[in-house]
Amino acid sequence: MRNDRDSILEHLGAYRNNLALSCDLMNDEVRIVVCRRKSEVLMWNAYTHLTTSLPFRGSLGRSLKFFVECNGHVLGMVNMRSAPAQCDLRDKYLGWSHADKWKEYKMNSIFDIGVCVSTRKYANLLTGKLLVYAAFSANIVSQLRKKYDRKRSSFDLEGIDAKDDGILGYMVTSLYGKSSIYNRIPFLKYLGNSKGYSGIYLSDDEWQNVKKEFREVFPGKLLPLKFQVIDRLSIHYKKRGKEFPYMVRNTAWRRGVYFGHLRDAGKPLVEMIGDWRERWFLKRSASIDYDSKETVKNELSRIDELVSFLRSERNKKGLFY
After folding, report:
1. What angle do CA 200, 168, 62 make, to 5 degrees?
2. Is residue 23 situated within a structural domain?
3. If you average pLDDT over every residue of the chain, what do you get?
4. For residue 19, what are the domain limits?
């Protein structure tokens, strides 16, 4: 968050104004606004930081960020990105072995919903699920194809309609097991919890040891990306029946894993939003007496505290006047 501090403060006024905007979730048009320019990406980052306390970082590989709006009000932010290389639950579900998932564009045929955050004004009306329906729409599939055009995967796509253009589906992970956002969405299947292994949290000294050993095991090879170094070296250990010593495990890092095939969704946005309204919004709005005024009041108070913290941090370095 500190790295985006200036951008957060710059977009603070627009974020406050967004809270003042209202929409009719039943009747107003829901739109997707893809972030193409750097200024739009910075705004997306700022809005996401201002909405959630969970830290997030830029991801390597493919990335498509977009807003979901209704009558000018930003309902939330979504980031489609390259799927993680290692996910045993996903690979088992798809029938992928480690040896062949890199062949024939298989890994390019899936994406990860890396960020899916609804702004808080209408969150109690299940707008988080609305974002998921938007992500699975044909509109986003089209945008992904435009940005990352490639040859259609040659592996077996039996049962996948041609409208999917070789994109098999999306995976998504959630903290603490099953997620209130992703749970019970008909086109998402819950696969279980990950094991909690990670090589991302290695200390600097451990990482230097990993790189040194990689060069010894694979002499003359260029050092690839961090996750690829860890991936290849861990396979080397596994083939020799040894435990990989650099992988860290913590139950706090276990995440719920979901996968959704585009064959089960992938309809135009207007139809996907119609499905969300029928399955989720009508029942939810009828079951609660929701007044957004109290939510907006609490949200403004929370933002004031956050901004005060950011300004104090900035002032420590003499950058805020």
Report:
1. 40
2. yes
3. 83
4. 2-196+251-293+301-316
